[in-house]
Amino acid sequence: MTGKKPVSHVPHKRAHATKIMPGAYPVFPRKIASSLLHALRDPEVVATAARVVAEKAEDLRIAVLAHVDRIADAARAADPVATFEQAHEIRGLAGNAGLVATGRIANGLCRYLDASRRAGRQPDQELVALHLEAIARAAHAEDEATRLGDTVANELAALVDKKLS
Amino acid sequence: MSGATFDHLKAMIVEDNVHMRTLLRSLLMALGINHVYEAGNGADAFVILRDKSPDLILTDLSMKPVDGIAFTSEVRLSHDSPNPYVPIIMVTGHTERHKVEAARDAGVTEFLAKPITAQGLFLRIAEIVERPRPYVRCAEYFGPDRRRRADERHPGPWRRHEDLESGMRVE
Description:
The structure holds 2 protein chains of 2 kinds. By secondary structure, chain A is mainly alpha-helical. Chain A has a domain at 55-164: Four Helix Bundle (Hemerythrin (Met), subunit A) (Up-down Bundle), CATH 1.20.120. Chain A has 7 helices and 1 strand; from the N terminus they run βααααααα. Chain B is α/β, with parallel strands linked by helices. Chain B has a single domain, classed as Response regulator (Rossmann fold), CATH 3.40.50. Chain B has 6 helices and 8 strands; from the N terminus they run βαβαβαβαβαββαβ. Chain B has helices spanning 18-31, 42-52, 68-77, 97-106, 118-130, 161-165, and strands at residues 10-14, 35-39, 56-59, 88-92, 110-113, 135-137, 142-144, 169-170. Chain B has a 5-stranded parallel β-sheet, sandwiched between helices. The radius of gyration of chain B is 17 Å and the shape is globular. The model of chain B is unreliable at 162-171 (pLDDT under 50). At the A-B interface, strand 1, helix 1, helix 2, helix 3 and helix 4 of A face helix 1, helix 5, strand 6 and strand 8 of B.
C-alpha cells in the first residue's frame, strides 16, 4: 500500500448545469446602465457619498455605546447567543463610527463565540470578559484609533487563536 | 457632478439595524436613486419584492425571523419570486467563512464587507451594471455563476460532465 487513494474508473454522476447569459435574463437597459456608470464614477458624486458616510459617524458611535451596554447585560446573563448578537452589531457599526479597534475586538469575540458554538463547547468566560472590558474601554476612549487599541486587538486575537488551536 | 436621478430605478434595503438602513439609503440617494424601499428582515422584504419589484437589493445577513441567506434563496428559487435574477448585494460584518459560503451558495451576486464605504458600494453596483454575470441552474443551485472568471488558459481539472464534452449549455 502506498497510501494513495485508488483511482476509480467508474464515471462520476455529474449534475447537469444550464448557463443563462445576460440578455437572456433582464439586465439594466443600456441607456440607464451608461448614465448610472457615469454617476458611479463621478468624483463629485463619490465625494458627496463619502461625506454622507462621515456625517453618520456620530449617530453610529452612540448606537455602538448602546450595544456596549447590552453586551454587558448579555454576558452577565451568561447568554452566549445574545452576547454574539451584540458583538456582531458592534463589529457591524463600529467601523463606520470611527471605532476601528472596537470593531476589531468585537470581531475577534464573534470569531471565538462562533467557533465555540460550532464545536459544541462552552466559551471560556474569562476570555469573553477580557473582550468585553476591551470593547467598553475602546468604545469610550477619546483616542480609540491609536496603536494601543490596535495592540489590544492583536493580543486578544492571539489569545483567541490559541484557544481555538 | 452628474446630478443625474434615476427615476426608473428601484432599490430595496433589507437590514434590521435602523442606523445601517439610513446610511445605505443616504448613499443610494447620493447616487440619484430615489425610489428606495426598506425592510427589517427577509420576510417583510419578500412582500415588498412582490409588490414593488426592485431592480437592486442590498441585504444584511443576520436578521430575524428570516435572515439574508434564506431571503436570497427565496428570491432565487421560489416560484412566486417576481424576479429571480435581481442583483443582490450582501452587506455584512460576518467574516466567518461558513457564513460567507452559505450566502454565496444561496445566490448572492456581490458581497460588501462592513464598514461601508461609498467607493465599496459603488464598485459593486458598477460591477453588476457593467459586467452582469451569467446565471447557472442545476439540481443544487440557481444563481449567479460562482466561477467569476472563465480562464481559457485553465488546463483543468474539469469537474463537470458538460465541461468535458462541450462546455455548459448556454441559453
